[in-house]
Write a structure and sequence with these properties.
Number of strands: 6
Strand content: 35-45%
Shape: globular
Length: 102
């Protein structure tokens, strides 16, 4: 999964860059498995309202949802893949996907 990136999180107080979603020495993003990623060093931007995911290289990913903890109370915000998209760099798939809370 070396090519899956959480490009940024957009919060109530601004935007922060995130980074690569990869668990060192672990085969992550496998069907039916839940992976937890910690992204250190992110700027505090309040509660996350939008996220953008990109895929590079040969990796692909179809996720059910992404759960983000942010804000003063580390409240969970959920971003669901309601469209059922498959993310990859193949022309039939989506390589960049932005999700926002309503």
């Amino acid at each position: 999964s070396s090519g899956i990136n959480a490009e940024y999180g957009e919060g109530s107080w601004g935007v922060t860059k995130t980074g690569l979603l990869d668990l060192y020495d672990h085969n992550d993003m496998q069907r039916g498995k839940k992976d937890i990623y910690t992204v250190p060093g992110m700027k505090y931007v309040g509660d996350i309202k939008c996220i953008e995911i990109t895929v590079r290289g040969k990796d692909g990913w179809k996720f059910q949802y992404i759960e983000v903890h942010s804000g003063r109370n580390m409240r969970a915000t959920y971003f669901y893949n309601t469209a059922g998209i498959w993310m990859s760099t193949k022309s039939k798939d989506v390589s960049r996907y932005r999700m926002c809370q309503k």
